[in-house]
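pinging the channel bc i need a second pair of eyes. not urgent but kinda urgent?? the chain im working w is below, pasted from the shared doc
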Amino acid sequence: GVIKWIKRLCEYGSLERGYFIDLMTAAVIYDYGQATSLPVIDYISDSVTFHSQLLLDSGKIWRDVINEEIAKCEKAAKKVYNLSVNLQEVSGASGDRITGGDAKVQFYDRIDRTFRLWLEELDAESDKYKEYADKLEDKIFIIARDFGYELVGQTSANAIFGRYKKPENNEKCTSSAQALNLYISSIKKIFNKAGDKK
């Protein structure tokens, strides 16, 4: 409702052109186990800043660019998840002990500030779509690549040599080095860095 109201203000000219919107939200978490008083056990707050033109029809192309970059970040997060699972498997974990969710959450946490700053700096009146997208992708790629190295560094020594797998099962990683190589290759494809030597 708040965004729709701001959009109307922009459409009717109540907000100046080039106006930046700083949207802040807050919520509380109650302890529903105590039905009589519902004490507050935690609170959550968040904020995002963006150019008002993104809400108007003229900002549609930019909204498409932003959605495309979000989709790429989601793909990279899935690759982080896969890397974490592969590293756990080559370290000897199996069954319910394997989870990649923590690594995925850590990845989102690491790219959060970078993405927000990019969104805040984005000039919706500019037509340099690729230049802005490339600027973000360069930073996200480096974060993803470095996080992959960090995850490999956290694995046990036996992950270096890995576990023996039958040769016909080619989709499974057999060592941390193989898992890392597949991961780096996949994030290069996501962020169009396949030809880079970074």
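so The beta strands are 20-30, 40-51. and The mean pLDDT is 82. — does that match what u expected or am i reading it wrong
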